[in-house]
Amino acid sequence: MADPKRRDRYLTQAAVDITELMKGEQPRLIDEWQDAPKFWDAIRFDVDHSPGWGHYILTGSAVPPDDKNERSGKKDIVHSGTGRIVRVKMRPMSLWESGESSGTVSIGTLFAGEPFKPGRATERSLEEMSYLVCRGGWPQAVNQGGETALDRAFEYVDAVVNSDISRVDGVSRDPARARRLLRSYARLQGTQSTIPNIRKDMTTGDQNGPDDDTISSYLNALRKIFVVEDSEAWCPALRSKAVIRMSPTRYFVDPSIAVAALGLGPGDLMNDIRAYGWFFETMAVRDLRVYADALNGAVSHYLDRNGLECDAVVHLRNGMSGLVEVKLGGSSLIEEGADTLNALSGLIDTSRQKKVAFKMVVTAVGDCAYQRPDGIIVCPLSALKP
Fold it and tell me: CA 231, 232, 235, 240 torsion: positive or negative?
């Protein structure tokens, strides 16, 4: 539907008789279908009267409007597709999908309770991993190399601030302000920063900056076009009365967006190891989300009032969970992550919920995955798969 040569004809056809566009070999894929929201109800009606599954695949670069066609201004109602249409979020590629993980450690196997088996990782240096962080999981970039691959994230950020953030819902937004917001978000990723904190970071030295409602509007648009994806708080049953902080943790869907928003490259990360750790955490969360999706699970974050924090909690629909700390590597950082995992698992009331399936420290470097005497798995990100 975004084909410039056929777009006008397709939109006219959709307005006259949309079923003509639905004819053809199945599964029938309709890209950028949200440009003609009538597809939703037409397909919903058709699958009600067709046996079997998998008749259509609807793909789009943004969340479709819920109650109107933003482009035409018409009140085109979009009904629920429950029981007929399944929503699948297409994330950037994980290291396993891009062929850069050996896949010797399976998250699904750990949840199944099978004994852990040490496995070789696709060994990479810290410098090589910094390149993967900056390149990101974009399919086009994965098939390229060198500086050309790094350019993809910068081009993506330019498209977001100059076009996509306004196009998604028809609301005109200031590109310069959108870029400042992305930079602030990049500086605050992995934290539970509030909207006022984000505004303060954005408007340093600027007395005429945006208010909280404006920032919220921009962030909602960024969520709709899948630029940012925060991690919700995990609320386990605890033995103690520790108060869990419910603020979401700020993340991008891919670390390369954060790097590009700040105008950085692999060399910059190597010169600031602390910042490198933040960007690597975003990449690890990206991969864990991909693997959790494959298992019908999700990834959350834990933080309580005592300051106990766990970077990622992978939890499945059946109540099983796995605790993950993300570290660049090195014995002291691995030990620090292990202490956190043991402290949190010790707080969980196993009489009220299932015992933690696994505890893992995910690292940026390392040639193999292994299990410590205390049961904690130390695994390079380049050894993981669903």
Answer: positive
The angle formed by the CA atoms of residues 219, 362 and 290, to the nearest 5 degrees, is 50
* This prediction's pTM: 0.89
Q: Is the distance from CB of 134 to CB of 153 less than 8 angstroms?
A: yes
Give average pLDDT by consecutive 10-residue segment, the chain, 386 residues: 90 93 94 90 91 90 51 48 81 96 97 94 95 96 91 95 90 94 96 93 75 94 94 88 86 97 97 96 98 96 92 95 96 96 93 93 96 97 97
> How many other CB atoms sit within 10 Å of the CB of residue 274?
7
> Which two three-digit tokens encode residue 268?
């910059």
- Give residue 330's region: left, alpha or beta (phi > 0; psi -120 to 50): left
Domain boundaries, the chain: 1-88, 105-385
Tell me the three state secondary structure of residue 313.
strand
Calculate the alpha carbon distances from 169 to 89, 124, 179, 212, 383 in Å.
19, 42, 18, 19, 40
* Residue 177, CB-side half-sphere exposure with 13 Å CA sphere: 18
